[in-house]
Amino acid sequence: MPKLRGAAPINWAIIQGEPVTGVTAVVMTAKMDAGDIIAQKTTPVFPGENAGELEKRLASMGAELLTETLNRIETGSATYTKQNENEVTFAPKLKKENGLIPWSQETQRIHNLIRGVTPSPGAYAYYCTKDTEEKKRLIILKTQIHEASNIKTSLKPGTVVEIAPCGIHVATLDGFLCITQLQPEGKRAMDAQEYTRGHKMTPMTCLI
């Protein structure tokens, strides 16, 4: 704090590409998350880390910080620092529709979004097979950015560029993103290569 006040600070820290996040002990006030700061701990957001993984690390940090804060209050050594209102940002609760992947954005922003909404509310896309116009929903669990990911393609964002050893390459605004793990609707999670062996997804398939 004062950044990311609200219901989903962990998610939004990843979605917005924050390099550092943390936990804060504040005085309770009528205004949400606006009380004086008693103590803080920070940690880097690891590359590839999703919101669920980061939440586990922050929960452990938060437990330690709470113990330290209570000890300071009990011994009278606690200090109270007012938050800078000019630096306040907000982290509203995420809805299901926040997880729909906007392929027309930059690769890094899409990668951050997928990590930030995993495991909940979840990142997803739709695609149609060549045999039917029925839209199928795919939950996208993990993605990777490669050195070559910034090589821009002429394909429409959301188009499958190729089925590669690492997974499914999908065109974005400024290159491509590799889907490495996904979950078909109503099915179990699986790696992308396993999925493509059993389903009719080929280059030029379009995700929406």
Tell me about this structure.
This protein is an alpha+beta fold and 208 residues long. It has 2 domains: 9-87, Formyl transferase, N-terminal domain (Rossmann fold), CATH 3.40.50.170; 96-198, Formyl transferase, C-terminal domain (Methionyl-tRNA Fmet Formyltransferase, Chain A, domain 2, Roll). 24% of the residues lie in helices and 25% in strands. The chain has helices at residues 9-15, 51-75, 107-116, 192-198; strands spanning 20-26, 37-44, 123-128, 135-144, 160-164, 167-171, 176-184, 190-191. The strands form 2 sheets. Strands 3, 4, 5, 6, 7 and 8 form a 6-stranded antiparallel β-sheet that branches. Helix 1 runs antiparallel to helix 3. 28% of the residues are buried. The model has no long low-confidence stretch (mean pLDDT 93).
